[in-house]
Amino acid sequence: MVIIKRYMRIFMLIALFAAVDCVAQTRDMDYYLQQGLDNSPLLKDHTNQARAAQIDSQRVRAVYKPQVTATSNNFYAPVVNGYGYDQIVTNTASVNALVNVNQNFVSKKSLDIQVGAALLVRDSLLNARDITGQELKRAIVAQYITAYGDLQQYNFNVEINALLDREDSLLRKLVQSNIYRQTDYLTFLVTHRQQTLQLKQFAIQYRTDIAGLNYLCGIYDTAAVALDKPKIELQHLPDAGASVFFQKYVIDSMLLKNSVALLNYSYRPKVSAYVNGGYYSSLTYEAYKNFGGSAGLNLTLPIYDGHQKKLQYQKIQLQEDTRQGYRDFFFKQYNQQVAQQMQQLTATESLLAEINDQVHYTETLIDVDVRQMETGDTKIADYVIAINNYLTAKNLLVQNNVSRLQIINQINYWNK
To answer: Is 231 exposed, middle or buried (0-12, 13-18, 19+ CB in 10 A)?
Structure first.
């Protein structure tokens, strides 16, 4: 549309600064994504928990290294005039100061299984962090698209207001020249005022969406900003079985298998040994000679536990059945959602082509009406109808462009 395009650049800049209280800077989607990921306490929580699980795996190995402790137990039980504790029991006094070395013996396979349990917990937490990151990205991109869509709506309405402002001056002159009636001008004026209110509404909505975007990303900033066009392309999706979302079920399966192995080893004989040395005396006879040492071997052999092992097997099997149910449902859900979203994307892109044609037609009609209105050869009511049709078509174009980007964002959620 020649007239609209002629004034578009000037009025776009003026109106954008007016709507957002003098925009200081322009930000793109990558900025908000980076801020959101850096500021997320949940992602940091998952990372720290994973590091803690890594430390737990090191602690497991440390438990089976020699444990050295120093102990000292001392007491004195006096007997006065025949009153006091039985000396046969108490020996009157006991003094000891010992250094103890304890060693638990475990096979390498058993140790690897226990360490593996901690490492699997770490992997599970890292996987949860990756999924949470995908969810956060999807939410940030969705909010960014929404805010950008409102900005587009606002910019488009600025164009219309610029055109109506220009025509307002012309129509007043034509009314004064009796080319148009006063009622015709009032019809136009109502449309103009309505469009001005719509412009203010979009300005408020845009600022609200920017505030929501900042809140989601953990950004404390009340300054007005303009948003760059979101760079969103449809990405190739991995096979469902290779995605980070399916990895959760793989790790859960490994954790359950590890639980079975730990259960089996918990019922095997356990051997530990100790050595100590130091001073141990009752102080009753040649106390200076009571330095020495001792060694021992402990053996634990499970015999009967009331069938607890069997019950634990049953419990783990129930967990495995639950895991398989969730896994199978994930495959169905994944395939269904992706297929449905691809259909929505195709339909939306097809509709966008038709809407673009409609926008072109209405632009042409407005251009013709404006030229004829300058000479009084068209009705103002027809011009108002053309403006409203153009508004409707343009709004549909913006809304469907936003819908297209939102659908792509939903599809790209599964790309990791």
So the answer is: exposed
- Domain 2-64+107-267+305-412 in CATH 1.20.1050.40? The answer is no
Give the model confidence (pLDDT) of 79-116 as tens digits.
888 787 777 777 778 888 888 888 888 888 888 888 88
Please provide the distance, in angstroms rounded to a whole number, between the alpha carbons at the two ends of the chain: 44
Please give the structure tokens belonging to residue 46.
Answer: 């998952």
Q: In angstroms, rounded to a whole number, what is the distance separating the alpha carbons of residues 267 and 188?
A: 89
- Compute the distance between CA of residue 168 and CA of residue 192 in angstroms, rounded to an integer: 8
Instruction: Please write the tens of the pLDDT for every residue from 157-216.
Output: 887 787 777 777 777 777 676 776 777 677 777 877 887 888 888 888 889 999 899 999
| Distance, CA of 353 to CA of 203 (rounded, Å) | 28
Asked whether the beta carbons of 366 and 390 are under 8 A apart, the reply is: yes
- Helix axis angle, 41-63 to 108-176, nearest 10°: 180
Structure tokens at 181: 């009636």
| Alpha-carbon span 118 to 259, nearest angstrom | 11
Provide the token pair at 381: 């009511």
Rounded to an integer, what distance in angstroms lies between the CA atom of residue 402 and that of residue 397?
9
